[in-house]
Amino acid sequence: MPEPHPIDPYDSMSALPPSAVFRRPTFRRSALFIRLALIGVAGGVGALACGGCGLVARAFEGGAEDDRSLLVEETRGSVPISSAELDELTRAFADRYVGLLSSTCDRLKKDNPDLVQRREAQVLLADCAANVYDIASNPDPFTRMLDLIVVTTLVSQVWIDDNRVAEVFPTRQEVLVRALHHGRQEAWALAAQVLRPDQLDLLDYLLWDWRQRNRDLVRASFVRFSAFAGGRAKSAGAEVGASSGLSVVELLGVGDLFSSVGEAGRAVNEARQFSERMFYLLKREPTLLRWQAAALRDGTLATPAVGMAFADVHRLTDQIEQLPLNVKAEREAILADFDRRIDRTDESVTNLRRALSQASELVTSLEPASVALNEMLKTANVLVARFESSDGETPSQPSRPFDIREYQEALEELATTAGKMNELLASSHELLGSSEWDRRIQEVSQAADGRMRVAAEHSQSLMNQFLWRTYVALGVFSAMLVLCLVFSFMLMWRLRIVVVNAAEPPREATAGVRRETRPPIDTRDTARDTAHDTGEGKVSE
Amino acid sequence: MTRLVWTVAAVLIGALLTGCASPAVPEVRDQTAGGVNTPLPATLADANSASTSSDALPSYEPVANLSGEIISIGGSTTTNVVARVAVLFRQVYPNVTLRISSSQTNIGPEALLKGLADIVPMSRTLTPEEIRAFQDEYGYAPTEIKVAADALAIFVEKTNPVPGLTLEQLDGIFSRTQRRGGPSIETWGQAGLTDEWTDLPITLYGFHPGDGAYRVFQQQVLKGGAFRLTLRVEAGGSSIVQGAAAVPGAVGCASIFFACQRVRAVPIAGADGRFYSPTEENVHGHRYPLSRFLYVCVNKPPRQPLPGPAAEFLRFLLSREGQRIVAEGGNIPLDTATVKECIRRLAD
User: Fold this and answer.
1) pLDDT of residue B20 exceeding 50
2) How far is residue A12's CA from residue B32's CA, in Å, rounded to a whole number?
3) Which residue has the higher pLDDT, B199 or A391?
4) Which of A121, A325, A391, B147 could make an S-S bridge to A108, C-beta 3.0–4.6 Å?
């Protein structure tokens, strides 16, 4: 197999026959063959770059069969666009695109506590803004337009088609999707004023194909259209110009706009355009720097270490914020508990007062009852005394005549007393039937039980103490008894010795010694002892 | 006792073997049955499966001392396929120069008619007028060689719950004439969706009228009717798909080649009334109704070989290697029967 060599996509344009001249209705150029070699995908990356893919612009007279197609063609081609207009349009679009992204970034960051999302939003804005302004300062408006299409398309493909937006901004993805899609549509609308539909179609395919081959690329805003030119480190315009002898502007059909301008005027224009580009870029540098600084700040904040520190601080501040609430809650709980206890105490006091009141009423009701009873007893006493006196009176004395009124009075008093007794009983019965009385009775019972229990314990203690002292007394008594017996035994033993000594003659050696050591013995005691032992003394007494 | 032990052992071994033989994963539903909500195959997965089917094709056998020039002028969709294959073809035949130009599909037949191109990539068949003009010039019809298959997919945003659409519904959605007789459908509620989708208007994305897919869709779905004026014409397939992905309630028609993660291809009702997803299998089986082929048209007189290296290029394109490149690029390769039929047409 022969050694393969790369295919130059642009040399394929040079050998087309002269008859292959197509008219381009967009710029109303009759028999213009435009060799627009826009595309060259990198040899190892893009097959099309090596495959010699190019664009042949052509539109046949009357070839468009569809009325709608004609309408679109005429609409797009009715107004020629100049290089100056394209220059203004591209720069205006750059500003609008950056403004759109800035607004979107603000919406993504607003009230967003996620540091990673804030960083990603700011990085997206800073990257796109820096690259779009860099593109907008390119001297060639056509290259500028192509680069803007590349950036807006690839960025939208990364975030929308690859659904990166759902991974990074899961809750706010609609904002970014809408903005990026709108930016892409506007860029392609701008391109549609310069390129034909088939060129747009091919460009769309090339971008999509390049994206499929570079799926790992996330920061797509750094890609330029020159990346599709086989990595030759030249711009697409320069590449095309070198291969065909035409500039990109001329290839687009706008080169004739400069044909009437002299060299001096061209130099002045170039100097002016250069100054404009410089001013354009310099005026936007502060904003770019501010966004870059914000991106750096957000990037720093989104680092894990800083994130952990912030999380700790947040936790601490949260706790501090919640501390008054916790204290308040605890204080309210304590006060509520205290209030409950106060309520219970008040209820007890109320019950006690009610019981005392009932007791007072009872006492009050008992007082007239006792008075009535006393009077009844007095009356009964009087009656008894009368009957006694009538029994003991002598017949000689005339008795007091029977008066029925006395009995009537007595019976009335008795009825009154009985009524008061009934009232007393009813009051007592009511008192006994009340729950308070039961409770008081229970309390009294409990108190009595407690007293009895205390008394039992106390009596138990007294009994224990009594028995303990008794045991001690018995012990002392026993000890004293034993001592007494011991003394008695010793005394008797000594008396027996004395008696024996007195009965036996003293020995010579030993007796003399004993006489010397022993005290003198009372003879009377000795005689009594002897008598006691022999029984003679007892008889004599 | 020994007999009992052996019986128990046999039962245990049998149970073990039965467990091993049982499928550990649930049975996969047959996608070709056309059930609704079938997942959209990834482009890469399509390419892999396609490469598997292209393995059945015969391998290409190079010829000696081939040189010359091949000029290709045609539509961009098929030109992309041709350009991919041309890279490998140039490695085989370094003395062959390929000059590939792409534009709208309309310019291809004219270039063939005027003899400006050796091969004309087309994303549609030639119209009767184009064939008649060619016959008037040369006395015979141009030869159309299928080089790849494709499916026009109806893309919606992936959260769109529409289970499937019929051709009549598509006509009601995309057309302002409704030649299929169905009602005009302007909201998703009219397409059968409920809840928050009921009043959501349908936003249309589609191709430029000069594109081949535009005409295919117009003929197959709209029966030659007119598109709605609200159709948002996008520059290319990826723009259409992104429009469907970014705008809620949007629907776009583009090649399955441009599928992305944020969209879903809606199954379309086939001739039997069942819904089919735009898979390679359904395209080859002619079950998916919006299937199409990508063609290369050549000027070949009957019973005469195709002059120049163009014939060898087409043979290479129809070989295992060529179809594998087609599949790797995300397109659907041809099945074996179609390839044989195309080779036979080249030899006639």
Assistant:
1) no
2) 44
3) B199
4) A121
Confidence band (pLDDT; 50, 70, 90) for B134? very high
Query: What mean pLDDT comes out for the span B243-263?
Result: 92
**A190 CB near a chain B CB, below 8 Å?**
no
B94 contacts A69? CB cut-off 8 A? no
Angle at the Cα of A220 (from A219 to A222), degrees rounded to 5? 90
What was the pLDDT predicted at A97?
94
**B337, B346, B320: which is closest to B54 by C-alpha?**
B320
Give tens-digit pLDDT for A210-247: 888 888 888 888 888 877 654 333 333 333 333 333 33
The whole-chain average pLDDT of chain A stands at: 70
**What's the CA gap between A365 and B236, in Å, rounded?**
112
| Phi, then psi, of A266 in degrees rounded to 5 | -65, -40
A3 contact B CB<8A: yes
Residues of B in contact with A7 (CB under 8 A): 86-87, 90, 98
Q: Which of B62, B101, B233 is closest, CB to CB, to A54?
A: B101
Q: Angle formed by the axes of helices A141-156 and A115-136, to 10°?
A: 160
Angstrom CA distances, A392 to A378, A400, A402, A477, stand at 21, 14, 17, 69
Stronger pLDDT, A233 or A449, i.e. the higher one: A449
pLDDT at position B165 over 90: yes
How confident is the model over B128-155, as a mean pLDDT?
Answer: 93
3-state secondary structure chain B: CHHHHHHHHHHHHHHHHHHHHCCCCCCCCCHHHCCCCCCCCCHHHHHHHHHHHHCCCCCCCCCCCCCEEEEEEEEHHHHHHHHHHHHHHHHHCCCEEEEEEEECCCHHHHHHHCCCCCEEEECCCCCHHHHHHHHHHHCCCCEEEEEEEEEEEEEEECCCCCCCECHHHHHHHHECCCCCCCCCCCECCCCCCCHHHCCCECEEEECCCCCHHHHHHHHHCCCCCCECCCCEECCCHHHHHHHHHHCCCEEEEEEHHHCCCCEEECCEECCCCCEECCCHHHHHCCCCCCEEEEEEEECCCCCCCCCCCHHHHHHHHCCHHHHHHHHHCCCECCCHHHHHHHHHHHHC
Q: Is B73 on the interface with A (CB under 8 A)?
A: yes
Tell which wins on pLDDT, A50 or A505: A505
Smallest CA–CA distance, residue A337 to chain B, in Å, is 52
Residue A42, pLDDT above cutoff 50: no
